[in-house]
Amino acid sequence: MKLSIQSRYIIAFMGLTLVVLIASLSVSRWTFERGFLGYVNDIEELRLQRAQAAVASEYRRAGGNWDGLTPRRLTQLLLDSAPAEPGLAPDRSGRPPPPPGAAFDPPPRGRQLPYPPTAVYDTAGMLVAGPSLEESSGELNRAAIVVDGVAIGELRSALRHQLTSPEEEAFLQQQIRATWMIGLSAMVLALVISIILARGMLSPIRRMHENVSELSSGDYSIRLGSHRLDELGDLMRNLDRLAVTLQESRESRQRWFANVSHELRTPVAVLAGELEAMQDGVRPVDAEQLESLMQEVQRLRFLIDDLYELSVSDIGGLRYEFSPIALDQSLASVVAGFEARAEEQGIAICCFLSGEPLGVNADQRRLDQLWHNLLTNALAYTDAPGKVFIRAFREKGTAVVLVEDTPPGVDRDECERLFEPLYRRESSRSRRTGGAGLGLAICRKVAEAHGGTITASASSLGGLCVRVELPLIELDHG
């Protein structure tokens, strides 16, 4: 049988309440019975204290001996001195005990007296009247009988270990019924409280269930908007953040497809136009036209290669062969290969190395690709005459490489977006060289694969500053 969370919660709450109630009521009943027995024994001790004066008076009346104290007379004296306490004085018929000196009728056969067995002993320990209550009979209440300051004997009665009189039993049954009423009332109250609490606690869970159902169906606009300060509130806010992330991911994927299709459409359209012109005889088929076609094919090939490499990197398919590499030497070698190209564009490129060995654990080919993409991006988006400065130095256990250029620059809010695939501004730093906007995205993947970071910010030269940090290692110069 499938139970809902609310049913499980109510059953658990009721079960816990029942266990606690049974334990508490059991302890309460045991404590009450023990306490009531203690009360009864205290009353018995008070009765003996009152009875000792009557027994002493009887002793004087008999001329200073115990000859006149018979069991019948002792019973009457004990009844006469019994405190007027519930359960100890009236009998079941409601009759109070006879007044002192009145004719005494013994209780009917089988009728218990409202006190435990009581006996009188003289100073020698001999039984005078009443049942025999020796030390072997168990614990005893004792009250000394004193006449003119001299002890002449003592009253003894057995301690009560259970309730025996009908009045006491009736009182105990009344308490048991009250206990059952309390228990039933507590269970009803617990049921009502558990239903209220379950509904209150499960209300946000139901909302989250509905929200997740909407998310799974593709509707990412649903928001829970919880202001709770507990774990459920944190979970609801996390679901809202998940919805925002999924919505941004879907929009990014849509932009990705749109940008990729646009990037592919442009060179294909140029190729188709050139080929149609050649077929129609508008343009001659010569080396110049073939070179133009080759440039468009090359552009397509670079775009497809970059897309493939970026997609493979996203799924962890790129293979890296790490080995100790001198970062400064790798960087200087790549920069040297860009000097002629920079000179043709009217841009001065300068590389500043700290002179300290900068060892990193890296893949040589991927590391060169990182520097190549950064320098290509800097040269593509720097106005001539301009400058590109490359600095490499050690900083707190990391190797830091800065690539800075002169204007145009990038707004601070857009610096982070530069690393998004196919992102380009439609402004001064736009598609100048026909690039697809994948170079910096690939740079981030390479840097992260090497355990490093890459960030962008405004350059002190007026353009863009890209900062790469990679973990340093010590190189073996042997």
Describe how the helices and strands are arranged.
Layout: H1 5-61, H2 71-80, E1 118-122, E2 127-129, E3 140-147, E4 150-158, H3 166-216, H4 231-279, H5 287-314, E5 323-326, H6 327-344, E6 347-353, E7 359-362, H7 364-380, E8 386-395, E9 398-405, H8 439-449, E10 453-458, E11 464-471
Question: Overview of this structure, please?
Answer:
The chain has 8 helices and 11 strands. Helix 1 (5-61) packs antiparallel against helix 3 (166-216), helix 4 (231-279) runs antiparallel to helix 5 (287-314) and helix 5 (287-314) packs parallel to helix 8. The two termini are 74 Å apart. The longest helix is centred in the first third of the chain and has 57 residues, at 5-61. By secondary structure, it is α+β, with helices and mostly antiparallel strands. A 5-stranded mixed β-sheet has the order 6-8-9-11-10. Strand 3 (140-147) and strand 4 (150-158) form a beta hairpin. Residues 85-112 and 426-434 have low confidence and may be disordered. It has helices at residues 5-61, 71-80, 166-216, 231-279, 287-314, 327-344, 364-380, 439-449, and strands at 118-122, 127-129, 140-147, 150-158, 323-326, 347-353, 359-362, 386-395, 398-405, 453-458, 464-471.
